[in-house]
Amino acid sequence: MSLSLVGLNHKTAPIEIRELIAVPEEEIGSALSSLSTEYGFQEAMILSTCNRVEVIADRSAKGDTIELIKRFLQSQHSLDPAVLEECLYTYQGKQLISHVFRVASSLDSMIQGEPQILGQMKQAYVHSENAEVVGDQLSLLLPRAFFVAKRIRTETRIANSAVSVGSAAVELARKIFGELPDKTILLLGAGKMGELVVKNLLSSGVSNILVANRTRERSEQLVDRLGGRRVPFDEVETHLVKADILVVSTGSASHVVNGTMIERVIRQRRYAPLFVIDISVPRNVSPEVNEIDNVFLFDIDDLESVIATNLEEREREADLAERIVRQEVDAFLDYHASRDLGPFIRSFRDRIEQICLDELMINRNGLNSDDFEKAEKMVRKIARRIAHPLTVQIKRPESDPSFRERKVEMIKKAFEIDDPE
Questions:
Q1: Which of 234, 238, 247 is nearest to 169 (CA)?
Q2: CATH for 4-155, options being 1.10.540.10, 2.60.40.420, 2.30.29.30, 3.30.460.30
Q3: Burial class (CB in 10 A: 0-12, 13-18, 19+), 2
Q4: Helix, strand, coil: what percent of the chain each, to 5?
Q5: Which is nearest to 183 in space by CA: 172, 195, 191, 193?
Q6: Are 394 and 331 in contact (CB under 8 A)?
Q7: Whether pLDDT at 120 is above 60
Q8: Mean pLDDT on 110-125
Q9: Rounded to an integer, what distance in angstroms lies between the CA atom of residue 253 and that of residue 282?
């Protein structure tokens, strides 16, 4: 495989550099065209996200592939080449395949298991197809990377657990209620974190939302962004009777929800479960609320604890995912090598057979036509048996791909085999 990859990511470059090098979505097509026409690449792909910018390209007739890719990245912004060089990594061969598989499977992401990167890679591949810079190599590598990512999501739990405050809230809500579409949220306050939690709950199926804030204007702004309807701040207790999830995110320095209030609410609810999420710092919900039957109170520390536990689980699952990647890399290399060796192996088998048949022709005197036909069949069979163990050895996966190349070259010289057209 003659592909090379040059890139930078959240581990190697600060956001200030990543945003300079990033290629906007609407400019990907022209950038790929530039890689083709100006830099001479027949195959190329650009993956540009908030956390990484990577370019994969085939050999170019215009010079060293890696240096040309670096020159392209440099052209994205007038950045000091020495500064950019310190942020870049390069991959070729087996390391490149492993990196692409790991990126697609979110093992190289800031948060392992996040689903966005796979979609971003698929879109990057589509851009390359549209720009007609996908050839034999990218058309093998990228679909296989997508398969590996799917296999890891199927065979591991790396993406099953919540690792953000919003997703942790959704996970807890599902444990309490099961399905969420018929549930109602009451958002108390206009804090950013509370809004984020509500967005996660809405994206998970919750359809009803009530918004209460001391300032009418802020409430209306939230309703515009989130949907639902505004309710007066001083009527929260009345509306909470009909809600299932209370998200509290105010700027108050003291408790705005206490045990007495929730006891009245839960009695009117006939003790139907109530999930209370207090995102505020300092806390806006009195801890005594958690002692009331069928009321489930979680503050920011509780949610962070859920996240920490889930991150540990993801790390354990990541070990299994890494093993899958290693298996898939070896399998891909073996397939790719066998595919490339096909024409040579056919030429080798033909050469062995021809040597045996030539010897038969030299010694055919005294053989009648029937005997010659039988001898010819036997010679062809012998030729196949001679060639078989050698072709098995040639196809065997090698930790050093150059060793396989040396074996092939040795056989070519020994049997005077020309490179197949």
A1: 247
A2: 3.30.460.30
A3: exposed
A4: 60, 10, 30
A5: 172
A6: no
A7: yes
A8: 87
A9: 6
Go through 282-298 and write b for each residue having 16 or more CB atoms within 10 A of its CB, e for each that does not. ebbbbeebbebeebbbb
Structure tokens at 93: 């061969």
Residue 212 to residues 31, 182, 198, 205, Cα–Cα distance (Å)? 48, 20, 13, 21
**Confidence grade of residue 291 (pLDDT, cut at 50, 70, 90):** very high
Burial environment of residue 147 by CB neighbours within 10 A (0 to 12, 13 to 18, 19 or more): middle
Length of the chain: 421
Residue with tokens 């739990």: 157
CATH code reported for the domain at 165-308:
3.40.50.720
Beta strands in 37-88 (DSSP E): 44-48, 52-57
pLDDT score of 387: 86
pTM summary value:
0.63
Domain boundaries, the chain: 4-155, 165-308, 327-415
44's CB contacts (< 8 A; 6+ apart) are 32, 35, 36, 55, 56, 57, 58, 128, 131, 133
* Average pLDDT of the residues of the chain: 88
- Which residues are identified as catalytic? 50
Contact 184, 244 (CB under 8 A): yes
CB 283 within 8 A of CB 299: yes
- 250 and 282 in contact (C-beta within 8 Å)? no
Q: Is residue 285 classed as helix, strand or coil in its secondary structure?
A: strand
CA dihedral 401, 406, 408, 411 (to 10 degrees): -160
CB atoms within 10 A of CB 417: 16
Q: 95, 107, 101, 103: which is closest to 52 by C-alpha?
A: 103
CB of 265 closer than 8 Å to CB of 240:
yes
Cα–Cα distance, 4 to 68 (Å, whole number): 11
CB atoms within 10 A of CB 420: 12
Q: What single-letter DSSP state applies at residue 109?
A: S
